[in-house]
Amino acid sequence: MKVAFYTLGCKLNQAETESLANRFSEARFQLVSPGEGADIYIANTCTVTHIADRKSRHWLRLARRRNPQALIIATGCYAQRNRQELAQLADFVVDNKEKEHLLALTQTLAFERRGLGGGETKQSQMLAATIRTRSLTKIQDGCHSPCTYCIVPKVRPHEYSLPASQIIGEVKQKVALGYKEVVLTGTKVGSYKDTVLSASEGSSTDLRDLVQHILHDTGIERLRLSSLQPSETSPEFLALWQDERLCRHFHLALQSGSETVLQRMKRSYSLDQYQRTVNLIKEMIPDVAITTDIMVGFPSESDEEFEQSYSFCQQAGFANIHVFPFSPRPETAAAKMPEQVKDKVKQERNQRMLELSRSSRRSFCEQFLGQTMPVLWEKETSPGSGIYSGLTGNYIRVLAHSEKSLSNEITPVKLVEFHNQGMWGEVIDENPG
Question: Which end of the chain is more exposed for a tag (fewer CB within 10 A), N or C?
C-alpha cells in the first residue's frame, strides 16, 4: 500500500517522520510524496502558531479530496493539543505519546479496511533519496522551560534523552545507508543527558560527550546541531569544532532583541548573555553562521521595544533570521496578557524584520564571494534542469549547473554570485581530464 507523510514544524517533527517512514518502508509500505495519490495519508502536525494549525487542517482536507477512500491519520503536537478538532478531518488522531505505535496501528486499520496488497515496494536503502539527503536524528524530547508564549511544554511535557548507545548505533546505520550528514535534533538539544553510557564511571553523558562519541565512533562526514540556547555553549564545547566534520552553523533562538520583552517572555538569558555567546562563537569558529528566530508583536510590545529588537538584530550580523508574528496559543500565559498588539501592527513589524532578514542573509553570503567551499548536494531543482541545490557547512544555499548527477555528493564549489536564496556556484572538477 502507498503511504504519504506530510510534516509541519520543527526539525524534531522531521526527525520523527523520518524514523516513522523508515519503519513503514521496512514493513513493505511504498513511500510516496505528500502530493501523490496514496492509500494512507499521515500528517505529523505542528501547533506552535495558528498558521501551523491552519496548514495542518488544509493538508488533511487536500488528502481527503485526493483520495476519498484513503485512510487519513493525524499525529503530532496539534493532535496532542486538540484531538477533537482534528477528528473532524482525519479518520484517526494519534497523539505524541502514541506516535511510536503508529505503524502497528496503521497496519491494523489497513487490514480492517482492505488488507495489505502485494506488489513491489521501495527498499529501505532508498529512503535517503526519498526523504532527504541529510538525516535528522532525535536525541532528546520534551521541555520544562516556562516561556510564556510557548505551547510546546504542554504538548511535549515529558523531558527525556535517548541512550547515547542507541543514537550512535542509529548514526552508524545511516552512514551505512549512504547519508553524508546527520542533524542532531530535539525539543531542547542542549539539555541532553544520558546516564547509561557512563554509568560504570559514575557520571553522565552530556551533549559535548555525545558529539565526541559520534565523531570518534562513526564515519559520518558531516554532523550538525539543530538549535541551542546561549547557556548551552562553553569554550570547551566550542573547541569540538576544530573537527571539520562539525558544521559551522549555530541556531540560537533570540525571540526578541528587547530586554523588557525577553523578561515578559520569561526567556532564560539576557541580551548581554546572548551577545557574549555570539561573540565567543565567532571568536572560536571562523566563517561560522549564526541564525536565529525573532518574534514580533508580543503582547504590549511598544514601538520603542520593537526598534530595540530591530537594532539588536541589525548589529548582530546574523546569517539568517526566521521571523514570525506572535500567535496566542491556548492555555499559555501570553495569550491572557493585556494589550495584545493589533494584527496590522504585527504585519508591519513582520515585514520590516523580513526585509532585515533578507539584507542580513545577503551580507553574510557575500563575504564568501570568490571562495571555494565544500557543498553537500541534495537534488535537481527540477527534473532534467541540470541545476542542483545544496548546502555548505555554514548553511549557505548553493545552486550550480552540472551535466552529471550531484545528488548526495560533497564537492568543492567556487561561490561566484549572490542568489536570492543563497549563492550561485561553479563546481570544481577534482579530476580534470
Answer: C
Q: CA-CA distance, 12 to 50, in Å (whole number)?
A: 19
Closest among 311, 17, 400, 16 to 3, alpha carbons compared: 17
Q: 133-165 pLDDT, tens per residue?
A: 789 999 999 998 899 999 998 888 788 999 999
CA distance 377 to 182: 14
Q: Do domains 2-125 and 372-427 have the same CATH topology?
A: no
At CA 288, angle to CA 283 and CA 294, rounded to 5?
105
User: Which cell numbers hold the place of 291?
Assistant: 541564525
Dihedrals phi, psi of 220, to nearest 5 degrees: -60, 135
- The CA distances from residue 421 to 39, 123, 150, in Å, are 35, 33, 29
Q: In what order do the strands lie in the sheet with 2-7?
A: 30-32, 2-7, 40-45, 71-76, 92-94
- Which tens digit of pLDDT belongs to each residue from 368-386? 999 999 999 998 988 889 9
Containing 350, the helix (H) or strand (E) segment is helix 343-366
Q: Exposed, middle or buried: residue 315 (CB in 10 Å: 0-12, 13-18, 19+)?
A: exposed
Could you identify the residue written with the cell 553523558? 205
What's the one-letter identity of residue 290? I
Render pLDDT for 257-305 as a digit per residue (tens, 0 to 9). 999 999 999 999 999 999 999 999 999 999 999 999 999 999 999 999 9
The domain segmentation of the chain, as residue ranges, is 2-125, 372-427
Query: Please, which residues have CB within 8 angstroms of residue 147's CB and are 6 or more apart in sequence?
Result: 153, 265, 266, 267
Q: For the domain made up of 372-427, give the CATH fold.
A: OB fold (Dihydrolipoamide Acetyltransferase, E2P) (2.40.50)
Of 259, 231, 346, 365, the closest CA to residue 296 belongs to 346
Q: How far apart are CA 419 and CA 358, in angstroms?
A: 11
Residue 65: enclosing H or E segment and its boundaries? Answer: helix 50-66
CATH dotted code for 2-125: 3.40.50.12160
pTM for this model (two decimals): 0.84
Quote the cell numbers at residue 68.
Answer: 476519498
**Reduced to 3 states, what is the DSSP secondary structure of residue 285?**
coil
Asked if pLDDT for residue 187 goes beyond 50, the answer is yes
- Cβ pair 263, 305 in contact under 8 A: no
Q: What is the pLDDT of residues 197-229, one digit of tens each?
A: 554 555 689 999 999 999 999 999 999 999 999
